[in-house]
Amino acid sequence: MQFDDLLTEQRNHRSTHIDRESTLEMVATINREDHRVARAVQKQLPQIAAAIDAAYPLFDQGGRLIYVGAGTSGRLGVIDATELQPTYGLSGEQTFGLIAGGEAH
């Protein structure tokens, strides 16, 4: 896989000059981009629902959800995995996060 080819690794041309914008322009740019995320997710709702429907029976039979990441995304995955436990009554064996650079076990 070539990471440079991934859309998520490309420079966002709509925010290239965000460092030269006024504070109001800056937050408006961020807000516009946030709206783009919501619209993109909305277009994928059937696929997201299908993935949940496929995973649920496996998860309910002892399957696990494991977050893997590095840097900020890794930390957010660990936080989300931890939050799923009290929110949905899951155990630490069912959902957990692995973060690059953590302790070796």
Brief description of this entry?
The protein has helices spanning 23-43, 45-60, 71-88; strands at 65-69, 95-99. The protein is mostly helical.
Q: What can you see in these coordinates?
A:
With 105 residues, this protein is mainly α. It is built from three helices and two strands. It has helices at residues 23-43, 45-60, 71-88; strands at 65-69, 95-99. A two-stranded parallel ribbon has the order 1-2. It is extended. The two termini are 28 Å apart. The model has no long low-confidence stretch (mean pLDDT 89).
Keywords:
3 helices; two-stranded parallel sheet; 52% helix; mainly alpha; 105 residues; extended
Question: Mind describing the biggest β-sheet?
Answer: 2 strands, parallel
Structural class estimated from helices and strands: mainly alpha
Radius of gyration: 18 Å
N-to-C order of helices and strands: HHEHE
Mean pLDDT: 89
Total of helices: 3
What is the topology, as strand order, of the major beta sheet? 1-2
The number of strands is 2
Strand content: 5-15%
SSE inventory with pairings:
Blueprint: H1 23-43, H2 45-60, E1 65-69, H3 71-88, E2 95-99
Parallel strand pairs: 1-2
